[in-house]
Design a protein that fits this description.
This protein is mainly alpha-helical. The protein has ten helices and three strands; from the N terminus they run ααααααββαααβα.
């Protein structure tokens, strides 16, 4: 509807040279809608459909871009569009950035390592064992994380707070 109003304003103002006619055309106010939030099961099915860890990470970023939870537990969102020519390098860089950020892996005291819940949810993609998770982390680890991984730490998965997806409280504040 507002597109038609804008087109008519242009028609009267520019094409016909009668801007006084365009002043009477008003835009229609549309109510703001709450975003659709997938359930935990739906998110799981969505991510399970991806063919491998890199694609799951990319899909997590894409889905997480619109949710508050993305600020807490998902890989970083790129400021540039993905392109076929650089996709493999971009996904490697994204994996490296995420794993070396506290949201991906955090070195704890006592030879322990807290990793993202992504490693728990998709354990089979990382070999299904802690050794497989450590091997994946080593592939992308920066010097500090690599040093911690060389001591074969015990993995402690991060707790994931699903209430971050709850829109009930945010609906009241709008």
């Amino acid at each position: 509807m507002n597109g038609m109003v804008a087109a008519l304003r242009f028609f009267f103002s520019v094409t016909c040279g009668r801007p006084e006619m365009a002043r009477h055309l008003t835009l229609v106010r549309q109510p703001r809608k709450q975003p659709v939030v997938l359930s935990q099961e739906e998110v799981g099915r969505l991510l399970e459909a991806a063919p491998g860890p890199k694609w799951k990470a990319a899909l997590s970023v894409a889905y997480g871009a619109g949710l508050r939870v993305s600020e807490v537990g998902c890989p970083n969102l790129r400021s540039k569009a993905w392109t076929a020519a650089t996709l493999a390098a971009d996904l490697d860089r994204a994996a490296r950035d995420y794993i070396n950020h506290p949201r991906g892996a955090t070195i704890l005291t006592g030879n322990r390592l807290r990793v993202s819940s992504i490693y728990k949810w998709f354990a089979e993609d990382f070999g299904g064992t802690d050794a497989g998770k450590i091997a994946h982390l080593r592939k992308y680890a920066g010097p500090r994380l690599a040093a911690a991984l060389s001591a074969n730490p015990v993995i402690a998965e991060a707790a994931y707070d699903w209430s971050l997806n709850d829109v009930k409280d945010s609906a009241k504040s709008q």
